[in-house]
Amino acid sequence: MNRVHDRLRGGQTGAVGMMIIIWLAVVILVGVTAIDAASIAFTKFRLADVASSASTQAANAFRQSPNVAAACQAAETSIATDDPLAKLAKKGCVVDASTGTVTITVRKEAKTIVAGRFGFTKRFTRVSATESNGPTAL
Question: Structural domain boundaries of the chain?
């Protein structure tokens, strides 16, 4: 009787182990996805701050001397100071000479665990931020 009982439940002993392995894989996948999403969101938030600071610096430089090249150079200096890995986008510095408002577009690649390694998710790691500011009132 013992042999019959062992044979009947013998097929189920691996099922519990397999279920645990599947659940662990799902938990790890969800965890890594959450970490990557948080990294991308944090990079976007930080990049917006860098772009805002750079646009303010460029607007102040343009107010001091109405030179578009000098204003864009001030923006690049501000970006390099705030985040050395962030770059001013091509045509990412636009100055409205009539109002003194400067629009800055900054790009950076977010550091991720998995998303940056696959072609179909790599585009999500390329983050950009655009901010416009005028000169400060001081």
Answer: 2-133
